[in-house]
Design brief:
Elements: E1 5-7, E2 19-27, E3 33-41, E4 47-51, E5 57-60, E6 65-70, E7 74-79, E8 91-99, E9 105-110, E10 113-120, E11 125-130, E12 142-151, H1 157-171
Antiparallel strand pairs: 1-12, 2-11, 3-8, 3-12, 4-5, 4-11, 5-6, 6-7, 8-9, 9-10
Length: 179
């Protein structure tokens, strides 16, 4: 449960940390997906943890706003202030789950607690970078312990619960709620 990759935001693309995976991972429009991130944020100021060379991003903008952007839908801000916040120095599990295919219903979770009301973003996106927006900005500042995306038929509520249980147990993170 230790380890992880320590990303540093130096505000300079030449020296900031980030990984370019070379090839893109694509999730088609109207396709269910589940993204997960176990991280400890050193700062909470526009930390992009997954992106492509376009505008597709998964970003933790602040203690209360998580943003997901696709090519087709622009950005969806998931303001979870009424449900939970995220603190610097706190190891957390953040999940974004898109279901209902054609409507693209999005829900955001912290340590198993769902933020509802949900939002919608049914559009297509590609992922190529870890820890930055397009290798050029919004560099992640903190430690990423686990990160991934499940798409298609495997992106179910049951698999989300299983992944949540596994990652919370693996990293010793307290569950905030059961669903």
């Amino acid at each position: 449960a230790g380890g992880g990759l320590d990303f540093e935001d130096t505000n300079d693309a030449a020296t900031a940390s980030g990984l370019d995976c070379g090839a893109s991972f694509n999730v088609a429009a109207d396709t269910n997906f589940l993204s997960f991130l176990v991280a400890n944020f050193e700062t909470l100021d526009s930390n992009c943890y997954l992106s492509d060379s376009n505008q597709e991003t998964f970003t933790q903008h602040s203690t209360i706003i998580t943003t997901f952007k696709t090519v087709d839908d622009g950005g969806v801000n998931l303001n979870h202030s009424a449900t939970y916040s995220i603190a610097t120095g706190e190891k957390v599990l953040i999940m974004i789950h898109r279901t209902a295919e054609d409507t693209g219903t999005l829900k955001c979770y912290k340590n198993g607690l769902v933020h509802d009301p949900s939002s919608a973003a049914p559009g297509t996106f590609d992922i190529r970078n870890v820890g930055s927006k397009n290798d050029t900005s919004k560099f992640f500042d903190g430690i990423i312990y686990d990160i991934g995306i499940v798409s298609g038929a495997l992106a179910t509520d049951e698999n989300r619960r299983r992944i949540t249980d596994y990652l919370l147990s693996k990293h010793g993170i307290a569950r905030l709620a059961n669903d």
